[in-house]
Amino acid sequence: MKARGWDAVDVVFVTGDAYIDHPSFAMAILHRVLERAGFRVAILSQPAWKSCEPWRQFGCPRLFFAVSAGNMDSLINHYTANKKVRNDDAYSPGGRIGLRPDRATLVYCQRAREAFPGVPIIAGGVEASLRRLAHYDYWSDSVKRSIVLDSKSDLLVYGMGEKNIVEIAQRFAAGQTLRDLRDLRGIAYALGAKESEELRTRTNAEHERQTAGHRQSEIEASVPIELPTYEQVRADKGLFAEATRIIHTNTNPFNAATLIQFHDRQAVVQTPPALPLTQDEIDSIYDLPYTRRPHPSYTEPIPAHEMIKDSITLMRGCFGGCTFCSITAHQGRIIQSRSQESVLKEAVKLAADPEFKGIVSDVGGATANMFTMRCTRPEVEAKCKRLSCVHPTICKLLGTEHAPLIELMKKIRNVEGIRKVFVSSGIRMDLAQLSPEYVRELAEHHTGGRLKVAPEHTSPRVLEMMKKPSIDNFGQFAQQFQEASAEAGKPRQQIVPYFIASHPGSDLHDMIDLAVYLKRNGYRPDQVQDFIPAPFDIATCMYYTGIDPFTKKEVQVAKGMRNRKMQRALMQFFKPENYFEVREALIEADRGDLIGGCEGLITSNPPKEAIEARRRQANRAVQGEGDDDHYHTVANPAKGEVPGERGAGPVKPTGYRPGRKSQKRRQGKRGTRE
Fold it and tell me: pTM here?
């Protein structure tokens, strides 16, 4: 502020992430678009939240506070699927933990209100987007109210917020009030009791007026829909499932209705999603002068930056509609692609960077190969309620041409100063198979020895619940890729498949079949993904209710830690430390035929390494470090509890096991921090 001669700022952004001026990070984009619009912006990054003093360091913002927990939901950032504290935070300097609170949006909004009462507070980001209405919270195992009410924010912007944040700033600067902003798309806000009752009366009257002579779909598109109330979805899992169905069938911005959900006497109103950006609009965002570096005050590397610093984003959105994924709920299902000119301009700038080593780590987006793909019939797209354009089959109206992407990839790798261009974003295999040329290009020029793909499971029933193609699709793609690799003179290139354990619908028999598939095909996964019920996802509704919200059929769910551990172990049946869990699972599922013999998953007798691993685990348990066998519950700061695990004291930046021998050494090296 001093260097720029500012006596005040217009907007103060509060974020749970370290500040990185790179277009892969929301704070950088939002800051840059506001700056371009002529506003003075300050970034309050990872503030010490135990007092409101850091919120006062820039003075009172002239327009508003903008609050985000960061690029991830703060609880997913802090805790594993087994509710254990993670040992690192990819969005913090040095990967240190403890630099943001649990439920960071709530805490940051409360501190902003305390610092400057009366200044508007706008909440946004992934955490706010996925909690904008009543939702299931895995970490407290309860249904929570809309975060608008719990954070006491004045307005919530959900989804990608560049256009909204600029318009909000411009309207405030022009003298408009919060009430004037209610016509914006992609927002949620709360009404007082009196206004809420008036809204209910108007909505009911309008619905009754339009009922005669109209189909229900037409009514829903033109009249606000009242969801089951918070009290109803908390008490009745069937109504929770019904609310989920309505919410997810109103995600197409061209036909979504305004949604209303009452929490006691207060209504939370969600307007339809923001319209997708045009190519010129998305180009103008990515053409801004990002430095692509962390703030110079940081002295330690930030893992997330190290991973993406040399990547290039081609597009936004995903029409896959996977039930366990939050990308569609946040970025939308309509693909928004940059122009080739904009992408190549960024590639030239990257190649000219003195620190660039000549390798572009990734070109893609939420999915690597959806560039420029969209419905070929705009009039149909405007009416479509389908949640996935590729499941159960690829829609015949979907444009699936890979030629623009192939042409762009060729041009990027021919930019002077660029030696290699890799694709690290996930490949949508069913789409890739439609273009043998794309698979050949991928194998010959854009794979660094290992290509990561995500078939997710082998069970047809589970894959149906995930909205993923059959495992045969993966086998066909793997063969196609291996043949293309051999033709390119790279026969040793490998496919690395990712699978999910404990997804709703998956039981021990399904996981055993998956383990047998892995063994027969020679796959040994290095990493295992445990299903985490993220707020708002369809799969999370299945996990909580045991009901498929669209078919209303019962869904088998693995909730106990014992069952989840066995499912995870089966995916890495070849590891000696998993021997006893795998054996227990096989016996419980009456699959003793897979113990011993050439076709078995494990040997008849435990290997020496398995016995030693069990002994080490028992010793850790005796010493109070046996975290593998204990269920950890997460404290609720709103009730005055210390953030972190109940009974574990405050979260410390040295990692999950505070009693380990290296604790003092680490504190001495890094110091402690609140």
Answer: 0.89
